[in-house]
Write a structure and sequence with these properties.
Oligomer: single chain
Bound molecules: phosphoric acid mono(formamide)ester
Structural class: alpha/beta
Largest sheet: 5 strands, parallel
Number of helices: 14
Distance between the termini: 33 Å
Order of helices and strands: HHHHEHEHEHEHEHEEHEHHEHH
Length: 334
């Protein structure tokens, strides 16, 4: 309890009363997930629960800048940012790199596969060595939940979580919110369905928190082996019937089936998953209204989504999501 109060006291200087209330209401759920790591004030600032219209509006401003002939806003001149990717990435890594360049920062890419991590150096030593070279900030993707929070204990600069294990992917959630707002002009009261591996998806977790915070209704759908047991606690509904979700929702977010977990037997086969839970052209074309199709990528075409649906620019905004990634990461870095 002392820890909790201390944490809120540290955080509250940067919170509006509305945000503080929301934070308190959701803290219990979050504590269950991150109880083993110590929270500091800098980290709380990056928490997805703090998403608000300000970061969304800032992202739209950067989108305009990226569409101008200049394409740059030199706001981070003289700052050095290291992108530390201990896990594979295409979209997040490149968009952070581009965002840093567009903001005029000195950007360094660290890849664990070509570093001394391969010789057995620990994460702590790796980070402290990088920090010794006087960096201003780090963007980290790591397979362990809580790694971004842990990083703040070792470096003085700002830290951005670019995906920590199955915990959260906050900047992906922000870009998903920006994509939805661009399409509908609002997020409040929209109905959003999230289909697939909710249990292991950091995107699902961050999207759920962001959508709830911004006033959307959320239903998750998938096989019971891939759904969290505490869904009701998160304030969301659960179903195993994808057709019901598609009839109900304005937006559907398909998630990657993590094929690397297939050996755990959570789904019988890719073919059966596609038939029961796949976003197929047949399912979508039966609907009486248009819905917006999203997917954070990378996609397993023909498994969680039909290839022709993913590429249908009248229905899918998957490319827009990637495009908006740079503006959103510029807003986060700023
Ligand atoms: N959406 C996402 O995080 O993609 P990458 O793994 O390619 O960064």
């Amino acid at each position: 309890q002392d820890w909790f109060i201390n944490c809120v006291v540290k955080a509250k200087t940067s919170l509006s009363p509305e945000n503080l209330l929301f934070y308190l209401k959701n803290m219990e759920t979050k504590m269950g997930r991150v109880h083993s790591v110590k929270w500091g004030p800098r980290v709380i600032d990056y928490d997805i629960l703090f998403i608000d219209n300000k970061i969304i509006d800032t992202s739209f401003k950067f989108k305009e800048i990226l569409e101008s002939p200049e394409r740059k806003a030199i706001l981070l001149k003289g700052k050095t940012i290291v992108n530390m990717f201990f896990e594979n990435s295409t979209r997040t890594k490149i968009s952070f790199s581009l965002a840093e360049k567009r903001l005029g920062a000195d950007s360094i890419n660290f890849s664990s596969s070509t570093s001394s991590v391969k010789k057995g150096e620990t994460l702590k030593d790796t980070i402290q060595n990088i920090d010794a070279m006087k960096i201003d900030g780090a963007v980290i993707r790591h397979g362990h939940p809580g790694s971004a929070l842990k990083l703040t204990e070792y470096i003085d600069g700002a830290v951005i979580n670019a995906g920590d294990g199955s915990h959260e992917h906050p900047t992906q959630a922000i870009l998903d919110m920006v994509t939805i707002k661009e399409k509908f002009g609002k997020i409040k009261d929209l109905k959003v369905g999230i289909i697939g591996d909710i249990l292991n998806s950091r995107v699902a977790r961050s999207d759920i928190f962001a959508l709830k915070k911004l006033g959307a209704e959320v239903v998750v759908c998938g096989p019971s082996t891939l759904l969290p047991s505490n869904a009701q606690k998160l304030g969301i509904n659960v179903t195993h019937n994808i057709d019901e979700v598609l009839k109900w929702c304005d937006v559907v977010i398909g998630l990657r089936i993590q094929l690397e977990r297939m050996h755990l037997g959570r789904i019988p086969s890719k073919r059966e998953y596609h038939s029961e839970f796949g976003l197929t052209y047949e399912r979508i074309s039966k609907l009486k209204k248009d819905i917006v199709i999203m997917h954070p990528g990378p996609m397993n075409r023909g498994v969680e989504i039909d290839t022709n649906l993913a590429d249908d620019i009248n229905r899918s905004v998957i490319r827009e999501q990637v495009e908006l990634g740079v503006a959103v990461r510029m807003a986060c870095l700023k």
